[in-house]
Each structure stands twice: as C-alpha cells, then as structure tokens.
Specification:
The complex is a heterodimer of chains A (281) and B (273). With 281 residues, chain A is an all-alpha fold. Helices cover 74% and strands 0% of the residues of chain A. The longest helix of chain A has 37 residues, at 65-101. Chain A is elongated and about 75 Å long. Chain B is an alpha/beta fold and 273 residues long. Chain B has 9 helices and 10 strands. In chain B, the strands form 2 sheets. A 6-stranded mixed β-sheet of chain B has the order 6-7-8-3-9-10, sandwiched between helices. A 4-stranded antiparallel β-sheet of chain B has the order 2-1-4-5. Classes of the chains: A mainly alpha (281), B alpha/beta (273). Chains A and B meet through helix 8, helix 9 and helix 12 of A and strand 6 and helix 4 of B.
C-alpha cells in the first residue's frame, strides 16, 4: 500500500482526514455526545452567553448551540456523503458503459452530458428545488441531477484510457465477462481519480446544502443544520453577531478539510510522487 | 515440422477491415482500409509467421483473429466455426502475448495473481490449484522468488516471461505472439525464442513480427503482409529457391554486424535448421 504510506507522510492531509473522521463520528454518536436536545426550546434562557451550562451559548429560542451543531452534522455531512455516493455510483455505471461499449451508447450518453453540463449547476439546482418544493430530499435529488454528468464524463475518459491496455485485451481474449473486467481491472484503476474528485466535491455539496438551507429551501425547521443555523443567526446579526460564529466556522473548517484532503489524495495518487516507483525508474 | 496433410486449424477468408480517419480538410470522416482481402490458413501444430513492416496491418489482423474486433467483411474460422462462437465454446483455448509487456500486466498485481488470472480463464473463475502457478513459472524459467513481486520490479525479459506463463496457464492450443520479442534486447530475444521453441509441444503458433530474422529462426513458414495485402507465402525450408522481390528487398535492408562493411550480408541468412 504505497498510496497509504505516502498519505501517512503528508501531515496536513492526515490531520484533515482525522478531523473529518472525528466529525463523522460526532455525527454518528450525536445522541451520546450532545449535552441537550437540539430542538428543546427554553425561551427564558435565550441568547445565553458561553459558559459551563451551555458551552457555545443558546440561540434566539434558547436552544443549545453545541447540541444543534452536533446534530447538524447528520444533515450536512451525512446528506452530502449520500449525494456523492449516489452521484458517483451513477457516474461509474454510465461512464463505464460509455467507455466500454463505445459507439452509439457512448454518443448518446455524452451528448446528454454535454446538454446537462451547459446549464450552470447552481441555477439548475435552484430551479429543481423550486419546482419540487423545499426539503432535504429534494436538495439531494437536485444535486445528483446537476452533478452526475461530470462524473459520467470523467469516468468514461478514465475507462477509455484503460480499455485499450493489453491486460484488458488479454482478459477479453481469455473469455472474462465485462463485469469481471470492470470489477477487477477498471475500478481499481479509476478509483484514485474518482476519490480525489469526490472528496473535493463533497465540500462543495456541503456548501450547497448549507446555502439552500440558509435560503430556507433545504432542511426545514426545527431540524438542526449548519446552513440554517447561519440563516437564523443572520436575522439577529446586529445585536448578537457572535451567534454566526459557531455554524460559520464549522462549515468553513469542514469544507476546508475536504479541500485539503482532496489535494493530499491527488498528490498521494500521483504516480510521479510515488516513492516506490522512483526506484523502478 | 510442417504438416501439409493436417486439416487447417484456422482459416481467414477475404478479411477486410478499415478504420475511420478524419479527412485532410478536417470535416467529415473517411474510411482508411487497413486489411484488404486477406486470406490464409494455419495448419494445426505449425508455427506460422506473419511478417510486415509497421502499419502493414499485422496487429489489426491479430485483433480480428483474437475476436477483439469485428472485420468489415470476410470470415475468421477456427476449426470451421466463426471466431466469436469458437472463443465462447473453447474458453482459454486461444491465448495471446503482446509486444508491450508494460501495459500487458496490471501494474498493481503481483506476479502470482497475473499468472493466476490466466489459470482461471480456462476453468471459469475457480482458484488455480496449489502449485499451478509455481509450475508455470518453472516452465518459463522464472525464479520462484519473483512470485510476490510487482511488475515494476521485474526486467523486461522477466516480465515477458510472466506474460508467456499467463498465456500458457489456460492450456491453450493456439497462441498469438503479437511482436512478442520485438521490444526486448537482442540477447533476451534469443532466450525467449528458445523458450518458445521448448514449450511449443503440439500447440499452434501465430508469430507476428517485423523482423525477418526472427521469422526465419522460429517459423515453419511465414506470410508477407504489405499495406494490408498478403504478398507472398514463404516456406522457410525453401526460402532461397522462391525469393520474391519484396523478400529480397527486406533481406538486403537488414543490418549485418561485421568487421568489414563490404562483406556480403547473405551469410547471415542461413535458414534455421
């Protein structure tokens, strides 16, 4: 596992990975970690300052901000990972089909991708959510619709790079089925590039979900979500500007961590940075 | 070695293949013919050479025979059956060794797994028997310590031996060598040719090369392919009595290493006995 070794040597990359794993664990274990119920309203205690009772204070309805951040991880991180999972799966299936079968299948799929990619994706997501109505599941659907052409196109390009390799030709001569060849040869080859792009894009999807929730199109109250918390804090920005800090910083840190991790993964997967390959050259 | 009486194992009939090519103007596509009406047959158990310069259509012909590409017209018949049906019915009976050994193996696989993939081809997905890989490595004279190596740790000659072992793994009776020795050093080429001769048994070889020396050293007879057309069939044993102008030209253009340049190069062309 030379890839893992070179990632381990990359301190900032490992730090980002550890941070994101920690955030994901916090989201998974939210009921055990959060000190309060995130939707428990206590109006008498609103805008409480930071203190031992409420580490990050309370919001305009007296809800504990730390608990809301912890539970918000589920919506923000969980649903962006779900979006990326669905998008990448669609991209793998369609991209490999196009790259492997060539001919008409490829032409039709690629022209469809061209049409989809010629719309600005933010505008298209807004339009889809506007048509389907607000709600997290519609945001996920809109993001998948806007993003699948990019992945299909990339995976088809990767597939075409490898499909003329002699070891794939040998597997075909030896009578292996197409699913076997995809599973055993193509997917491991393409995995690197898919992981890099998906990691970078996860940050973008978190921003998209947060932005739509901020606008009131995503997560519906009282479910906690980082972008929506930011939106609620915005209304009282003049009186209590510090209310914007916890959700804002959380979004910033998580998205930045995904971007740094994506860069580190790209370096680790770059064959010219491989310590083991330098010996062979 | 040749067996004129045996029924032809592989028959190629009027094979034509062309590839699309952009017109010089940049608009539209025209078809460039690569193979023009190629017909020949391979007898069971022989080593047939296919000799031609770069761009003559050798590799395209091999891909059509291997069933990787469909010809525009014409037929490829194995034992009287169309190529795609024969390949399905006789899994692993046909195998191939390519020129470029670097792209012939998955760079992430260990030697053991590369050869095992060939073993599984014949048996339909089962794990190879214990020792099958080791036996194959011994057969191609690879030291057994290399079994756990990755491709980039091997030399070119070793890697090509791995490819040959993988091709042998499914117990094929027909192997296509598509320029299998051309990318190797001259001394390694001789070793690999020796190896191919030793392991042949009753297999049938189609040996594709651009090197007339290789063709005469290994083959029983060879076909000359030029610009997609078969120009001559040469029996190696009777090569000098029936010399076509193109063959003569090919032989004259070969570099001969000698102390004096004026020496006649024909001495190097004793057919392999």
């Amino acid at each position: 596992m030379s890839f893992w070794q070179s990632l381990k040597r990359d301190r900032p990359g490992m730090a980002c990975l550890c941070f994101l794993v920690m955030v994901a664990l916090v989201g998974l274990l939210a009921p055990y970690i959060a000190p309060y119920d995130p939707v428990d309203i206590d109006v008498r205690n609103k805008f409480a300052p930071c203190g031992w009772a409420h580490w990050l204070g309370t919001d305009h309805l007296g809800r504990d901000i730390l608990s809301r951040l912890v539970y918000g991880t589920r919506a923000s991180l969980g649903f962006s990972l779900l979006t990326m999972g669905v998008t990448v799966s669609i991209g793998i299936v369609l991209g490999m089909l196009a790259g492997f079968l060539r001919g008409k299948v490829e032409a039709i799929l690629m022209r469809l991708c061209d049409v989809m990619m010629s719309f600005p994706s933010e505008v298209m997501i807004l339009a889809i959510v506007g048509m389907l109505g607000p709600g997290l599941e519609n945001v996920v659907l809109a993001c998948v619709i806007a993003k699948w052409p990019w992945y299909t196109r990339m995976i088809r390009t990767v597939t075409r790079q490898y499909v003329d390799m002699n070891y794939i030709r040998f597997a075909r001569v030896a009578g292996y089925s197409t699913p076997y060849i995809i599973r055993r040869h193509l997917l491991p080859c393409a995995a690197g590039e898919i992981i890099v792009l998906a990691t970078l894009d996860t940050g973008a999807v978190i921003l998209m979900i947060s932005a739509l929730s901020f606008l009131g199109l995503g997560v519906q109250p009282p479910t906690p979500e980082w972008g929506m918390m930011l939106g609620e804090a915005k209304d009282i920005m003049i009186l209590y500007p510090e209310q914007m800090l916890p959700p804002g910083l959380t979004i910033l840190l998580v998205v930045a961590a995904f971007n740094f991790l994506g860069d580190s993964l790209r370096d680790a997967l770059d064959p010219w940075h491989h310590p083991s390959k330098e010996v062979a050259l | 070695m040749s067996m004129p009486d045996a029924a032809p194992f592989l028959v190629v009939k009027n094979l034509c293949k062309s590839y699309p090519e952009r017109k010089p103007s940049g608009w539209g596509v025209k078809m460039r013919p690569i193979l023009k009406d190629v017909s020949f047959s391979v007898r069971s158990g022989e080593i047939l050479g296919l000799l031609g310069e770069s761009g003559s259509g050798k590799s395209t012909l091999s891909r059509c025979i291997l069933g990787l590409e469909a010809p525009d017209s014409g037929e490829v018949l194995f034992e009287g059956q169309a190529v795609r049906y024969w390949h399905v019915r006789h899994r692993g009976a046909c195998s191939v060794v390519f020129q470029d050994y670097v792209t012939s193996v998955n760079p992430g696989f260990r030697v053991r797994d590369i050869i095992a993939e060939g073993c599984r081809a014949g048996g339909g997905g089962n794990l190879p028997e214990e020792g099958a890989v080791a036996a194959l490595m011994e057969r191609v004279q690879l030291p057994s310590r290399l079994a756990e190596s990755l491709p980039h740790q091997l030399s070119g000659g070793q890697l090509q031996r791995v490819c040959i072992a993988r091709a042998l793994a499914s117990n094929p009776y027909f192997i296509v060598f598509d320029e299998a020795v051309s990318a190797l050093d001259v001394s390694i080429q001789a070793q690999i040719l020796d190896l191919l001769r030793n392991i042949k048994g009753d297999m049938t070889y189609l040996f594709i090369t651009h090197d007339i020396q290789m063709a005469t050293l290994l083959c029983d007879r060879f076909l000359l392919l030029r610009n997609g057309e078969l120009t001559a069939t040469v029996e190696c044993a009777a090569m000098y009595s029936s010399m076509s102008p193109y063959l003569q030209e090919l032989m004259d253009s070969t570099i001969v290493f000698s102390s004096e340049y004026s020496e006649t190069p024909t001495a190097a062309w004793e057919p392999y006995a």
